Amino acid sequence: MILGLSRTWSLAGYLIAAIIILPLLAIIAQAFVPDEDVFGHLFNTVLPTYIANTILLMLGVCIFALLIATPAAWLVAKCQFPGRKMFQWALLLPLAMPAYVVAYVYTDLLDYAGPVQKMLRLWFDWQAPGDYYFPEVRSLGGASVVLALVLFPYIYLLARTAFMEQSSSLQHASRVMGCGPWQSFWRLSLPMARPALAVGASLVAMETAADFATVSYFAVPTLTTAVYDTWLGYGSLSAAAKLSAIMLLVVFSMIGFERFARRKQQLFQKQSGPNESSVSKLTGINAGLATAYCSLLLLFSFLLPFAILLQYSWDYFDESWNAAFWQYSFNSLYIAAIVSVIAVFIGVLLIFIRRISPRASDILPSRLASTGYALPGTVLAIGILVPFTMLDFAVNDLYEYFGQAGPGLVFTGSVFIIIFAFCIRFSAIAIGSVENSYKRISPSLDMAAITMGLKPKALLWRVHMPLLRKGIFAGLLLVFIECMKELPAALLLRPVGFENLATYVFQFVSDEQLEQGALAAIVIVLVGLVPLIYLNRSLEQEN
């Protein structure tokens, strides 16, 4: 905070923040509008089931993700075993895989007509479903397991960092006091990593609450599917807004818990980097078990679904390689490119204002703008439909007032609304990426540039931008891949006849024909791998 900015900069920041929080305000306002008893009907019939399923799903996914991610994070951070360096980055790969694709693959493998149950019936001579018990895949439990397999890297990444940052002297002290490796993990490492685990679990819970495609495929009614069904089934924007408001309560509770856990995290973790001297070398059967555990986790979370997608793509290549595939790929790419540039522009502008303005009020826009990512896709879509539907009606009424034919759905019937929604949802990612890069630029550099007579625009363009290029590039990549994967908002907001790769693949999943959409799913996964590899290399260079 070293330079007095003109009010134009502040107004620009507040204008962007106001646009980003517009859907949130619209949901709150619309939730108080009467809805012709649609919400009352839902409240008296299925709403308790929606809420219970949402809570049970979040708990199930978090528990299972913690159980599989924590041992992997501890092994990679604290033990030396064959394949450790590869597992450090490979266990992040499931983040590139859409959860609904994994759901389809495992349903195809594990349901009654799938190869696993066929093989069991053949081996044990079972003739009918009543002859044996097999867990139902299309269930709340099945959805929990599938989502945990895709989302566990959030916990793995944070827990691995927490374990690596634990002081080696504490480990040595515990061993001197007679603790074995297991006791040292249980009584020392795990409690110290608890804040990081809590942060990871809260992120997983938020992603679970926002998931639409997986629970829809498994026919598990949650608040997300309720918002979608209420809008498309009943056509009641007010009832959908009320359900969205309930979801927001759940999401913001998770955010509050995550912030509380991060505060604790700073108390327990030291500031230095990883300490290789605290890594124990595993030998014999222990080394084999560690490698086997990480291998199986990688196999079931990424390699097996990816291999099946490759097989589907090869078998159905002629049917998939068509004009629709190219058109939908182009739609996804150009929307993702436009949103990435806009989101990064917003991130640079808001963080620049916050960095150099002496006014305390200039901190607020960047914080308000970061709330967009907290809105689940379906909730965000409802929040955007409310004001833009009103705006469309106003434009058409204005045309009719002057005796002209209205232009129709200018905003809600065009691609503009998808780009707008994606910008709001993913600007927070760009803001975070730019903010991290700014932390590495010394304020003394700003002061030296100002002393030499540089104005704010020149300071930003000639001094900051060259130093921010890695953060900007990371932000572009992250926003790009999120746009490629985003499904719920695209499903609700897409104009008639418009598809992108995510909606294209989901249609095939819903029709039980993923084989024909596997090539498009492969594209989504491969595009998602690029930022993961880049970010992992950046983390390794920092370490």
Automatic annotation (TrEMBL):
Biological processes per GO annotation: transmembrane transport
ABC transmembrane type-1 domain span: 51-256, 329-535
Coarse class of the protein's main subcellular location: membrane
Cellular component GO terms, alphabetical: plasma membrane
Location of the protein in the cell: Cell membrane
Organism superkingdom: Bacteria
UniProt cross-references to Pfam families, sorted A to Z: BPD_transp_1
Transmembrane segment boundaries: 12-33, 53-77, 89-107, 140-159, 196-219, 231-257, 290-312, 332-353, 373-391, 411-434, 472-497, 517-535
Membrane topology: Multi-pass membrane protein
Protein keywords: Cell membrane, Membrane, Transmembrane, Transmembrane helix, Transport
InterPro entries, per the entry: MetI-like, MetI-like_sf
Family recorded in the similarity comment: Belongs to the binding-protein-dependent transport system permease family.
Name of this chain's protein: Iron(III) ABC transporter, permease protein
